[in-house]
């Protein structure tokens, strides 16, 4: 009898331990799977403190803003942007959209890489910002939301500071081990020093050689230069981007996002997101993301038409 009671006691303890272990495991998985609540408000501006300002060149700086807690996420869907509010040199309010270079996986902070133009109204605000100052931010903004696997490949054409949304989407794709989407990026600038995020872009190309290809184009290249020269041409697009497919529709959304610079038109950037959707409900083979100044976008639209991206394949919001 004592032997049986001992067995029953051991069985009860074992079951209790198993239940506790399962409950603890479930709780752990729940905590891990639960996404941190976003810090943005789409209707109201919120203040975020600048904790680091690092000058990358004479007119480019990386701004790091802290979130409420070390485990907070900004809450910005991939492919969307935020609205930043500041004051220009005359003290007048100015609001401009920007795309962070960080993702929601970067907890506790978000970063903006800003090119500050001499006559730029919001550029003035960022140029005057000091560590400890606060930036008013509202969002998320934008119609584009990326879903892993929605296309087989992206073709991207970026000009100047238009690289930031491309960088954000590319990072999200490459850092997701379950996303097999390939990215082909053409990035145009005036001079070598104008290239933003080059170290990060080159690192991604080296780390993911089978999934990410980048082709740089300069209007005024240095003496030793292996990339493209001049403006982005049809031939460059044909050589460095996937070709169009017959069964997709291409939708694009344009948004003026920076102060226009007449030199090459690459100072401001106009965000054009081409959302490809299969007419048969299948995964689309190709999608184009364009981000550059208005003159560049007009030229790229003409190139895409000539290369077979028909009007029926393009829809502008």
TrEMBL record:
Domain of life according to the entry: Eukaryota
PROSITE patterns: FAD_FR (PS51384)
Listed cofactors: FAD
Subcellular location: Mitochondrion outer membrane
One Gene Ontology MF term: cytochrome-b5 reductase activity, acting on NADH
Chief place of localization: mitochondrion
Family assignment from sequence similarity: Belongs to the flavoprotein pyridine nucleotide cytochrome reductase family.
UniProt-recorded name of the protein: cytochrome-b5 reductase
Upper lineage: Eukaryota, Viridiplantae, Streptophyta, Embryophyta, Tracheophyta
């Amino acid at each position: 009898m004592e032997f049986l009671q001992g067995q029953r006691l051991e069985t009860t303890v074992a079951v209790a331990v198993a239940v506790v272990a399962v409950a603890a495991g479930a709780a752990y998985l729940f905590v891990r799977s639960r996404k941190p609540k976003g810090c943005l408000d789409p209707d109201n501006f919120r203040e975020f403190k600048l904790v680091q300002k690092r000058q990358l060149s004479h007119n480019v700086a990386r701004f790091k803003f802290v979130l409420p807690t070390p485990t907070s996420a900004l809450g910005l869907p991939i492919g969307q942007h935020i609205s930043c509010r500041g004051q220009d040199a005359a003290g007048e309010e100015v609001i401009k959209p920007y795309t962070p270079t960080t993702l929601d996986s970067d907890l506790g902070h978000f970063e903006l890489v800003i090119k500050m133009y001499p006559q730029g109204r919001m550029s003035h605000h960022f140029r005057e910002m000091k560590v400890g100052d606060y930036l008013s931010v509202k969002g998320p903004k934008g119609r584009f939301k990326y879903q892993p696997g929605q296309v087989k490949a992206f073709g991207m054409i970026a000009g100047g500071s238009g690289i930031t949304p491309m960088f954000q989407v590319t990072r999200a794709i490459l850092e997701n081990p379950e996303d097999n989407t390939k990215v082909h990026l053409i990035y145009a600038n005036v001079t070598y020093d104008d290239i933003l995020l080059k170290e990060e872009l080159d690192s991604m190309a080296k780390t993911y050689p089978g999934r990410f290809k980048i082709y740089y184009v300069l209007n005024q290249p240095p003496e030793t230069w292996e990339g493209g020269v001049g403006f982005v041409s049809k031939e460059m697009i044909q050589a460095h981007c996937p070709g169009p497919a017959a069964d997709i529709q291409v939708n694009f959304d344009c948004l003026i996002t920076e102060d226009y610079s007449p030199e090459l038109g690459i100072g401001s950037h106009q965000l054009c997101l081409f959302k490809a959707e299969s007419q048969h409900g299948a995964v689309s083979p190709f999608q184009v993301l364009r981000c550059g100044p208005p003159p560049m976008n007009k030229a790229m639209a003409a190139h895409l038409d000539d290369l077979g991206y028909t009007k029926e394949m393009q829809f502008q919001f």
